[in-house]
């Protein structure tokens, strides 16, 4: 069993923290597929196993788009089982509807970075950084509701390029 160091909040896709994007969180158990400063566990989120009702909150930050649709459905089922009653799920992910509208309106290099997981120069830095699926607010809301969660908030972030969905078990 994984030693959580007494933490009851999980940060999937804890990533590389910068001043502008502080993904690592000290009060969370931080998991990422790559070792970064502050990563508690280097592991592919698709293969994680935790006891049911382990976490009061799970943050899925900019990583649900790195697995395909089928894998995301399986992962969401697991995540729901890991949440305690009244636990919160927070998902931050690229906003497909906004990206498509901007791209159809003009050729926008920033949109391509969000759609392909690029650093802006065509590099993904590492193989797991590829975008394998993208969601609209409506499509992700549906997936979350099917898992039995209640959506408490959904709003755009990063100037519309992304959105945040918050749901409660």
CATH topology (fold) name: Rossmann fold
- Topology as H/E string? EEEEHEHHHEE
Radius of gyration, in Å, reads 16 Å
In percent, how much strand structure appears in the residues? Answer: 25-35%
Q: Structurally, how many domains make up the residues?
A: 1
Q: Which residues form runs of ≥5 with pLDDT under 50?
A: none
Secondary-structure content class: alpha/beta
Largest sheet: 7 strands, mixed
Helicity, in percent?
10-25%
Secondary structure: number of strands? 7
Mean pLDDT, as a whole number?
86
Overall shape: globular
User: What is the CATH superfamily classification?
Assistant: Vaccinia Virus protein VP39
CATH class: Alpha Beta
Number of helices: 4
In whole angstroms, the N-to-C terminal distance is 24 Å
Q: Trace the largest sheet across and list its strands.
A: 3-2-1-4-5-7-6
Observed structural traits:
169 residues, Rossmann fold, globular, 25% helix
List the helices and strands and how they pair.
Elements lengths: L8 E4 L16 E4 L8 E2 L12 E7 L7 H14 E12 L1 H10 L3 H8 L20 H10 L3 E8 L4 E7 L1
Parallel strand pairs: 1-2, 1-4, 2-3, 4-5
Antiparallel strand pairs: 5-7, 6-7
Helix pairs in contact: 2-3
């Amino acid at each position: 069993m994984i030693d959580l160091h007494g933490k009851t909040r999980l940060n999937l896709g804890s990533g590389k923290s910068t001043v502008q994007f502080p993904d690592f969180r000290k009060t969370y158990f931080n998991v990422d597929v790559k070792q970064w400063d502050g990563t508690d566990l280097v592991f592919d989120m698709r293969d994680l196993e935790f006891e049911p009702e382990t976490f009061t909150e799970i943050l899925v930050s900019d990583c649900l788009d790195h697995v395909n649709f089928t894998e995301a459905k399986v992962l969401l089922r697991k995540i729901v089982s890991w949440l305690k009653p009244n636990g919160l799920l927070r998902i931050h992910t690229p906003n497909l509807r906004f990206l498509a509208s901007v791209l159809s309106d003009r050729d926008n290099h920033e949109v391509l970075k969000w759609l392909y997981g690029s650093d802006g120069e065509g590099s993904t830095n590492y193989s797991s950084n590829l975008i394998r699926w993208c969601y609209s607010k409506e499509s992700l809301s549906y997936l979350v509701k099917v898992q039995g969660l209640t959506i408490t908030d959904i709003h755009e972030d990063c100037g519309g390029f992304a959105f945040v969905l918050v749901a409660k078990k």
